[in-house]
Amino acid sequence: MRKNTLVRSAQLFLLLGLATIASIATAQNLDPTRFEDTILGFETEDAKSAPNEGAILLTGSSSIARWNDQAEAALAPLSVIPRGFGGSVMGDVLHYLDRVALTYKPRAILIYEGDNDTWYKLSEEKIVGQFEEIVAQVHELLPETRVYVLSVKPSVARESVWPAAQQVSASLHAIAESDPLVHFIDVASPFLKADGTVMTDIFVEDGLHLNDKGNAIWGRAIKAGLMEIEGQFE
């Protein structure tokens, strides 16, 4: 019995070690040009049917990207332009900011990042610093445009980096508290049970991406965060 337990423990440590190595290796190869084809795809869509200016631009990693085709219905009557690109980190949004967001001259930009960033062991200072650069560019080029930033959501698959994700969220929240054009939306709390652990029935099999129930909760939290200010423009 003890032998089996030791074997299972060894296997678990091996898997965790491999996951850590993989995440670090991925972090060292985060060349933003890996998304060039995706951004070109958005630009091809725009050439066929250009979105209206003055909408709310949604961008960020897979939780936004996998929601691209559901966002308009979930956030109605708000006018939105979904431009999420899965697997991205805050630095990718910064790199493509002009093409994925500013070009649309939106009245507001909503960003979800930090999920992959913390999993790849990127530092809080780097993630938050890149967000501050994004905000600075928006303020300079679109001085009336508001920026909404979502907290990092919890997940079963990334429980090990949840403390780091919470710290990043706290820092993003602090930026919003100090800037009247930046707003923080908490999408983490709605996914937590009373004991503070994450709900387990809101994900697809990978334990990371949201299923229909998760997306419904996600959509309600985002809409509630946007409507107070953005609803007056519809």
Automatic annotation (TrEMBL):
Keywords: Signal. InterPro entries: Ester_Hydrolysis_Enzymes (IPR051532), SGNH_hydro (IPR013830), SGNH_hydro_sf (IPR036514). It holds the Pfam family Lipase_GDSL_2. Residues 1-27 form the signal peptide. This is SGNH hydrolase-type esterase domain-containing protein. One of its GO terms (molecular function) is phosphatidylcholine lysophospholipase activity. It comes from SAR86 cluster bacterium. Residues 62-217 form the SGNH hydrolase-type esterase domain. The keyword ATP-binding does not apply. The keyword Signal applies.
